[in-house]
């Protein structure tokens, strides 16, 4: 009994596309065959670029595949289309409009402009696109870099904005023995040329949203938040209230505080909470996690939108906490980062 | 073995012992980026009398070309750049009715109220009609002045703030917050029966250089020899020094103008009346108390100036990155015709020659004297500011924080290309680059 299922993909701008998916076939592959502009990148159930919400019908993870979605996300209907099989006619909602996916990733070369050690385990890498190379991105999206001298590829969110192009700023966490870390510490030089590709990801700033913005960042999860904050600063029209809650493990791993303080100077609408998981903490920094402080001093506007970027545990905790405070799950956007050696 | 090279921060230039060190400068980086002005703010565009019924005028603010037309008393403002080929409609006004303005070249006709393309003179059925248009700018007319909200094309109507948010602090409502025991409450242009009289002219320097002059308490040295100072025997110090931790109040109230107020003529500022080394001494007799404040997007107020019950406002409206329209306006409450004609007489006979020109002409040339240092960015990096520059630095920070947008460099607009041959021809004809559109003369006379 191998009948195909009719799949409907519904974009946030109201555009709907329909196609058929075969049993055993992943929905992403079926969509791309019909040129339906679904964002995607790893095609292996981890990067979450192809995240969609099942709103009608049955669809589940393909036999033998695994996804990085946590149970509470699956229970809300979230699916990663690259590892999802349609089990009946079904409808998926996407959190972006039908034009986004046409902003396809491209390959480019970029020069190294600067390598700055910001903290014990964080490096700021500034790149500049080579003559003739260009791509556009949305604040929050990431690029991939081929680590020189290896076949390894690593993903990093832009901390800079599209207006800063051809300059690109990345915040990179150093991992002992990691391939990128080793290159950064031992091989990287100003004027080196890197092979990059991008942009990727559907974690990006939604246009024109005026409700308060909550941003929770763990470690180098700060990068996409910096891009979004600067983009909001440059946006036309009244600026929304913003709350950035930024947490690191220890005092020695806190970084970029000067840059954050500058944004507070420039943006009266921006409130900042800093935290470290373990003390001691410098003045103005709490000991605790960046999640618990949200809504602690004043009630949260239930129309708020939230952007989360950090390790899976933080995202899970933040999602639960925000939903308890009354935020709608579709207004919570998350980018997990999984450290690769 | 690979070369092991430690990761280092890039060496940065040491700028210690400067009032505006690297850290301070980065706090006002948005201001340094605002060469073309702050957009999404209210600016004065014309005096009411400059736009009589039916008239059309073209101006440029923050690199945005704007055409104004008055119909049945009401003023409309639209982007002065036809969507078709970019022609400035104001250069040769063509209006066939009270609801539209047409481009005189190919007849693209725009609604005055919403800017939409409503017809094309010789192509009335084209499918472009209704599907495109030009940006409109909200207009307010008060006390004889026309203000325009100069905005980015995508700035939403519902976010437009009231005009009062971009005008100076008002009195007596702020008298408790900012007491003024030495002079009566300054009038406001928004008060009932307020009359604004003034002039505006183009200055050839960046608007920021101009703006920072008026509330810089060391700049008054340029006025040392001014006629009005000596004719009226005013005590105008050589300079005024900050002698308090908070010589300036930053005003950031949610529902009002954002800017700064200087605590002049209090114990927070010390007037300097003598320099022994140079043998300079101010020996005039009559105290001349005044107070300066500035609000976004760059509007100066001088309370109690040039005499009681009168206030001087100034604007330095960006035209391009190297030109601004200098507005000097005196406001007084005039309840009767007699009051009005007395104010007008004094404005014409005393204020215009002795203040707006005699006194403020010095400011105009002082700003232009700084322009070359700042044009290519040198000044912004190399200026060696001192203690009295607490005023411009505070302004730069507050402006960085509260501006509603940084104007992008003008593109495809008058004077954005400094070396075009048409600009050269105009210069050769003796026409300095300026604020108003260059109108096209009727050639039928030949």
From TrEMBL, chain A:
Domain of life: Bacteria
Alphabetized InterPro entries for the sequence: 2Fe-2S_ferredoxin-like_sf, 2Fe-2S_ferredoxin-type, 2Fe2S_fd_BS, Beta-grasp_dom_sf, Cbr1-like_FAD-bd_dom, FAD-bd_FR_type, Flavoprot_Pyr_Nucl_cyt_Rdtase, FNR_nucleotide-bd
Pfam families linked to this entry: FAD_binding_6, Fer2, NAD_binding_1
Known cofactor(s): [2Fe-2S] cluster
All residue ranges annotated as the FAD-binding FR-type domain in the record: 105-206
MF terms (GO), sorted A to Z: 2 iron, 2 sulfur cluster binding; oxidoreductase activity
Residue stretches making up the 2Fe-2S ferredoxin-type domain: 5-98
Cleaved signal peptide residues: none
Record-given protein name: Methane monooxygenase
Species name: Novosphingobium arvoryzae
From TrEMBL, chain B:
Pfam family name, one: Rieske
Biased composition (Basic and acidic residues): 10-24
This protein's UniProt keywords: 2Fe-2S, Iron, Iron-sulfur, Metal-binding, Oxidoreductase
Residue numbers spanned by region Disordered: 1-26
GO MF term list: 2 iron, 2 sulfur cluster binding; metal ion binding; oxidoreductase activity
GO CC list: cytoplasm
Positions of the Rieske domain: 42-148
PANTHER family xref list: 3-KETOSTEROID-9-ALPHA-MONOOXYGENASE, OXYGENASE COMPONENT, IRON-SULFUR DOMAIN CONTAINING PROTEIN
Protein name stated in the entry: Rieske domain-containing protein
